[in-house]
Design a protein that fits this description.
This protein is of the alpha+beta class. It is built from six helices and five strands, in the order αβαβαβαββαα. The N and C termini lie far apart (99 Å).
Length: 172
């Protein structure tokens, strides 16, 4: 491959890395064409970008990026598949959903999520349980609404009690 072609590919990978805040490195070696196509369809449906890249080109794109991906450099060996997303837990949930009970592919090498690096297959469960930005916002809104709902509920029950007492007194 010519040096100019490599530069174009590195720039393209760099553009993709800049678009997404979460980067997962996986190994899909051993998946046949049918399963790889199924994984691509699942990624498309979950708004996760899947790229198969050469490790040297990916490393150069990561080095050129403004984000510090240095924790992932040691994982760039063998076959590497990138799963890119703006939702931190989406690729992890996708991997768990895709796997059969006895299948271990795609294997998670590591991930860069919200400025943190996760290395190893054992981090998949942790990554799947990370709450997304929208889930955290929903939790905060629910927490903020809870005291207001309690006050309104107490006022309504108090009003009903006073109404009941006044009605009883008026009947006497």
């Amino acid at each position: 491959m010519k040096k100019e072609d490599k530069a174009i590919i590195i720039a393209g990978i760099g553009d993709q890395l800049a678009k997404y805040s979460c980067v997962y490195l996986c190994s899909t070696a051993g998946l046949n064409a049918e399963k790889t196509s199924a994984l691509r369809r699942l990624c498309f449906g979950a708004d996760v970008k899947m790229l198969c890249v050469k490790n040297t080109l990916l490393k150069k794109a990561m080095e050129a990026s403004e984000t510090d991906y240095s924790g992932l450099y040691d994982l760039l060996h063998g076959e590497t598949t990138l799963l890119l997303s703006n939702v931190g837990n989406a690729p992890a949930k996708l991997i768990k959903k895709f796997r059969d009970k006895k299948d271990t592919l795609p294997a998670l090498k590591g991930a860069y999520v919200e400025e943190s690096v996760y290395i190893g297959e054992d981090q998949l469960e942790v990554l799947a349980n990370i709450k997304s930005k929208n889930e955290l916002i929903a939790d905060v809104v629910a927490l903020l609404q809870s005291p207001a709902k309690n006050v309104i509920s107490a006022l309504q029950s108090g009003a009903q009690t006073i109404h009941g007492v006044l009605e009883t007194l008026s009947n006497r």
